[in-house]
Amino acid sequence: MRKKIVAGNWKMNKTLAEGLQLVDDILKLSNENDEVIKIIAPPFIHLASVAERVKSVKGFEVAAQDCHQMAKGAFTGEVSAEMVASTGTRYVIIGHSERRTYFGENSKLLAQKVASALANNLIPIFCLGESMEDRNANVHLETVKQQLKDGLFSLLPADFTKVIVAYEPVWAIGTGVTATTHQAQGMHNFIRSEINKKYGKVISENTTILYGGSCNAENAKELFSCLDVDGGLVGGASLKASDFVAIANSF
Ligand code: PEP
Fold first, then answer.
1. How much is the pLDDT for 1?
2. Is 98 one of the catalytic residues?
3. What are the CA-CA distances from residue 21 to residues 7, 26, 59 (Å)?
4. Chain segment 67-104, per-residue pLDDT in tens
């Protein structure tokens, strides 16, 4: 079902002690309600502790920032979806542009990660988005359509309904440049219409589509007021408790 979600992607920030302090600060400032799901995505090694901290708090969930595509084996340094799930984590970010760019993750690999996440009852938050070159060349819709098709459209409808989509234009991530409401709504509407073509109206209307890219306490309200924007995937601003909570209160 379509949900309102604000997810904080901490990336490679915070020691364990700092991370738990941030969680405590967020919990102190938040109302306990599940109208808006607040998802915290800390580094792998914090997952179990953060999941333990929020497990009895209504409306809070935990996400990993990635998972490996294989179930187990000789993959030094990697973490499987089953291991992530075993910490009490229920969500996993897959296909973040930093993974695509710095770790060479391609569509085929990302589709495998999505499958592995779903097989282990993790909810994938699947990221996609165009570069500035794509937008300037007016091929941004084509790029996002291909990412959707390659990463998600092999899923059976019952599996697709579990996925959350995050539109994150690469040019807006960590840059301080936010998509305008016109750009965000335009792309979210396009994504929903592509889902409609593939899976039908009911599924497309029920798909949660988040916006990510320099979303902050000042611009969240305007972005979330867009018809097809169901919340945000937030990087930098999720590292400050008051900002993260203000964003979660922006619906
Ligand atoms: C992100 O990393 O997913 C992100 C959206 O980062 P920022 O909010 O810092 O642009």
1. 87
2. no
3. 18, 9, 19
4. 999 999 999 999 999 999 999 999 999 999 999 999 99
CA of 173 from ligand 1 middle (Å) equals 5
**Integer Cα distance of 232 and 165 in angstroms:** 10
Q: Identify whether the C-beta of residue 172 lies closer than 8 Å to the C-beta of residue 179.
A: yes
The catalytically annotated residue of 46, 68, 96, 188 is 96
**Minimal CA–CA distance to 179: which of 214, 148, 217?**
214
Record the pTM. Answer: 0.98
**Residue that has been written with the tokens 């988005």 in this structure:** 129
CB of 6 within 6 A of ligand 1: the answer is no
Q: Is the CB of 168 under 6 A from ligand 1?
A: yes
Instruction: Return the SS3 of 150.
Output: helix
**How far is the C-alpha of 115 from the C-alpha of 146, rounded, in Å?**
18
Looking at the domain that runs over 4-248, which CATH code has it been given?
3.20.20.70
95 within ligand 1 shell (Cβ under 6 A): no
How far, in Å, CA of 228 to CA of 183, rounded?
A: 12
Question: Does 96 participate in catalysis according to the annotation?
Answer: yes
The residues, any chain, with a CB within 8 Å of residue 248's CB and separated by 6 or more, are: 6, 30, 36, 38
Domain boundaries, the chain: 4-248
Q: For 15-24, which contacts have Cβ atoms below 8 Å and span 24 or more sequence positions?
A: 16/45, 16/46, 16/49, 19/43, 19/46, 19/49, 19/50, 20/46, 20/49, 20/50, 20/53, 22/239, 22/241, 23/50, 23/53, 23/54, 24/53
Smallest Cα–Cα separation from 60: which of 22, 116, 117?
Answer: 22
Of the listed 98, 168, 188, 194, which one is catalytic? Answer: 168
Q: Is the CB of 9 under 6 A from ligand 1?
A: yes
